Amino acid sequence: MTEPTRTGRRPGTSSTREAILTAARERFAEVGFDKASIRSIASAAGVDPALVHHYFGTKQQLLTAALDLPIDPEAILATLAAVPDELLGETVVRLIVGIWDSPVGVRAVAAFRAILSSADPSLARSFLLEVPLRAIRDRADNPPGTGATRAALVGSQMGGLLLARKVLELEPLASMPVDELADLVGPTLQRYLTGELAAPVAGGAASPQK
Amino acid sequence: MTEPTRTGRRPGTSSTREAILTAARERFAEVGFDKASIRSIASAAGVDPALVHHYFGTKQQLLTAALDLPIDPEAILATLAAVPDELLGETVVRLIVGIWDSPVGVRAVAAFRAILSSADPSLARSFLLEVPLRAIRDRADNPPGTGATRAALVGSQMGGLLLARKVLELEPLASMPVDELADLVGPTLQRYLTGELAAPVAGGAASPQK
After folding, report:
1. SS3 string of B66-77?
2. Which residues 30-69 of B are in CB contact (within 8 Å) with A?
3. Which domains, ranges and CATH numbers included, belong to chain B?
4. Measured between alpha carbons, how far is residue B99 from residues A142, B104, B129 in Å?
């Protein structure tokens, strides 16, 4: 704060921030979100762990920064936490499509395309599994053991909707109002989240089927 | 046929074939499948239209060749045509996932990733709209006007499933047996194809909603 700057960030720190972000991307991709400790990321970047917390806050916030996401996933998760179970499906559609369609959506779509064209999708998988899908999994794990399947199914439908609406710009989905999308796709997510899934699901009891 | 070759293809024609394929890719991307005539493709390639038919057969077969797909979409469509309406959802899952998981699936997934990372997705959109999604649209257009929406929704779920299973390799979807996937995702496709869609759909009567 010795001189006024637009961001309020101190001069001379951007290379340290970048070193931390680079180390974080590498660790998250290598060992996944859970096993990548702030300590190991700090060590790889050659800085004190306290500095990582100082610049980026929590490990989730560091992951968000490492992915250069234009939004804070925790804000979305907090919103969903307040929604009753029976409205989760359409709320997820409204919330997520709302972000794609917002001014920051261009960056979200660009990040999605970058992830898809990357030769190694492990950073993307790490993010998906450890932040949005984990939240869904824990919320929707009923009966116990079904949460991971439910979350992955939700991810598959929303990923495909992003693909159709924003990457391929496939009509009528590309220009459909979000209310109509919520009516059409919401019930799919609702079944994935809270419906009785016909099949034996991962983590369930041993099945007599092949 | 003047000399034996493994493919039976005449020598000296590969540059002509390539010129036709290049012209076809450009025309399909520029004006879409419907408006790209064999005549205009032949003209751009500097050959007689009869030669295009001779090498590639129908315009659909030319599109398949232009996309370098490892499978013939018409064979899949013929299979689906024989399936009763109420089994369409799970059959689509079994048939399409079966291709991804087969030896040719590696190439199908590579083609999908190439499409996604291409700066201009119009060739992919042209293919999707004019071959698989058109077949679904015509089959599922009940009540009339709903077919395009139904087809695009099916495309969104299957595209997202390909993304989750084959690109991101997201568990438990990545290694789930196809029978279980058909049980989980089949009902989604079935509703998109033949269910009563809650919302006013594209092409339907004017809606009182905004």
Report:
1. HCCCCCCHHHHH
2. none
3. 14-66 (1.10.10.60), 73-194 (1.10.357)
4. 32, 7, 20
Encoding tokens for residue B195?
């269910």
* A94-100 average pLDDT score: 90
- Report the C-alpha gap between A185 and A96 in whole angstroms: 12
Please check whether residue A202 is in contact with residue A145, taking contact to mean a CB–CB distance below 8 angstroms: yes
H/E stretch holding B124 reads: helix B122-130
Q: Which amino acid is at A113?
A: R
**E strand segments, A69-168:** none
Euclidean distance between the first and the last CA atom of chain A, given in angstroms as a whole number:
66
Answer whether A110 touches B (CB < 8 Å).
no
φ, ψ dihedrals at B209, nearest 5°: -75, 165
Do A91 and A80 form a contact (C-beta atoms < 8 A)? yes
- Chain B environment of A148 (Cβ under 8 Å): 171-172
Stated length of chain A:
210
* A12 backbone dihedrals φ, ψ, rounded to 5°: 85, 5
Cα–Cα distance, A3 to A203 (Å, whole number): 57
Asked if pLDDT for residue A9 goes beyond 70, the answer is no
Query: In Å, how far are A8, A123, A146 from A1, measured between CA atoms?
Result: 7, 35, 51
Q: How far apart are CA A30 and CA A33, in angstroms?
A: 9
From the list B117, B19, B2, B10, the residue with the least C-alpha distance to B65 is: B19
- From A128, A164, A177, residue closest to B168, measured CB to CB: A128
State pLDDT tens for residues B21-63. 889 888 877 777 777 899 999 999 999 999 999 999 988 788 7
